[in-house]
Amino acid sequence: MTDGDDTPTPRTAQLAEASRDLLEAYVTREPIAPLRERIEGLTLGEAYVIQQLQEEQALAEGRTVIGRKIGLTSLAMQRQLGVDSPDFGFFTSDVVYYDDDVVPVAHFISPKVEPEFGFYLGRDLSGDVSVEEAVEAIASVHAAIEIIDSRIKDWNIRLVDTVADNASFAAVAVSREPLDLTKDDLATARCALLIDGEEVGSGTGADVMGHPAAPLAWLAKTLSERGVHLKEGDLVIPGSFCAAHPVEAGSRASADFGQAGSLTITFGEAGTEKEMAR
């Protein structure tokens, strides 16, 4: 999107400015106005350009992209955010937490949590793959909790806003040990979201686009169309079992898969020196 002499067009400059403003919001914790209101006619493709610019900046800073998130895959989340299509984002190793970690709420603006599967891939995955092929690519299945947040003020988002804002991703927690279930159990497995021991939502794998590997197949195709491929070892979180729930300092969140296993994290005012250095 240049004038032919590598000079950015006004439109390109707008997208770059939006990317910088979103990155600044991570630091200041001051959300910005919806991008759809400040960039007239913002398209989905342009929203992904804004996201890509942020990924490029993360790589330039020496951070390592280790996985992808898929969002808006359940009817509950689509109703909650007023959209009717999935989206995706990226995440880096420095925003991954594990069992019993304390996650500092000071890193976020208005955080919410979602219970999910965490899929580690056993091989590269790209192109027009089937759900069955996506399942075969999964090396291990883990409990996960995605922490979502919005750098857009008051969560006033539509699809282009959340896509530009890295699909409203903030951080992810994943169990170190795999869940005690087989790949045949993915669609029927039940997961409950517990906040301070109280169930606030639940769903089964079938609530995630009919089968939790369906978003993985969708992502493989969608990324391939952009010249990006899922790789062996990547962590993919395919979407929430239920609607997101807000958390605050002192909250304890669990993704409870019953006898198959669970994952619990706690939210604190501040984290360890390592966490605060992120």
TrEMBL record:
Domain FHA: residue ranges: 119-169
Keywords, sorted A to Z: Lyase
Keyword Plastid: no
UniProt keyword Lyase present: yes
GO-annotated cellular components: cytoplasm
Pfam family, one: FAA_hydrolase
Entry GO MF terms: 2-oxopent-4-enoate hydratase activity
Name the record gives this protein: 2-oxopent-4-enoate hydratase
Originating organism: Bowdeniella nasicola
